């Protein structure tokens, strides 16, 4: 029996360790609503008690990404009921050169983040892989930043909105 070959989600021949900005979406396994408390429907969850225990653990692990990698920052993020969005940047030092510390690939950062959450929760809550978009300019960066901020307000229109 021949198994199907899985198509890669990454842009072929692109160096995901190079400085740049990336829009990342990571979904829960089977798109289950795990990250918000029951009854939380709108508003930025981080501003209220909308995040579930899993959501709070995810928020903590997002904050640890920039501590673990000195040349990586999380510029914006949102935790939705069944997925998260991250606006992540690899950056240069003040002289315009790449940082001396080795920069991990985007896949490595996401893998370690998902692993840290799984270890803390004691079970995997993640769908395989993740979606990324390489941000090409300042206008696109601003548009994605705004999208992340407004995502909870448009939750019922979201492509990941699935009722049980």
What would your notes on this structure say?
This protein is of the alpha+beta class. It contains three helices and four strands, in the order βαββαβα. A four-stranded antiparallel beta sheet has the order 2-3-1-4, sandwiched between helices. A hairpin with a 3-residue loop joins strand 2 and strand 3. It is globular, with a radius of gyration of 16 Å.
Instruction: Profile the largest sheet.
Output: 4 strands, antiparallel
- Would you list the SSEs in sequence order as H and E? EHEEHEH
- Estimate percent helicity: 25-40%
Number of helices: 3
Which term fits the overall shape? globular
Chain-averaged pLDDT: 83
Name the strands of the widest sheet in spatial order. Answer: 2-3-1-4
Q: Tell me the radius of gyration.
A: 16 Å
Count of extended strands: 4
Alpha-beta classification = alpha+beta
Beta-strand content: 15-25%
Span between N and C termini?
Answer: 35 Å
Low-confidence spans: pLDDT under 50, at least 5 residues? none
């Amino acid at each position: 029996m021949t198994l199907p070959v899985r198509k890669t989600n990454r842009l072929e021949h692109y160096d995901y360790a190079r400085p740049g900005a990336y829009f990342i979406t990571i979904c829960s396994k089977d798109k289950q609503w795990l990250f918000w408390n029951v009854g939380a429907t709108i508003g930025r969850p981080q501003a209220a008690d909308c995040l579930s225990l899993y959501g709070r653990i995810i928020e903590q692990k997002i904050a640890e990404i920039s501590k673990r990698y000195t040349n990586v920052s999380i510029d914006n993020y949102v935790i939705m009921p069944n997925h998260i969005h991250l606006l992540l940047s690899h950056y240069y030092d003040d002289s315009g050169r790449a940082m001396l510390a080795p920069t991990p690939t985007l896949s490595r950062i996401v893998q370690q983040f998902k692993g840290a959450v799984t270890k803390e929760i004691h079970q995997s809550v993640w769908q395989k892989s993740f979606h990324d978009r390489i941000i090409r300019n300042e206008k696109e960066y601003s548009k994605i930043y705004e999208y992340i901020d407004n995502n909870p307000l448009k939750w019922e229109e979201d492509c990941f909105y699935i009722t049980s």
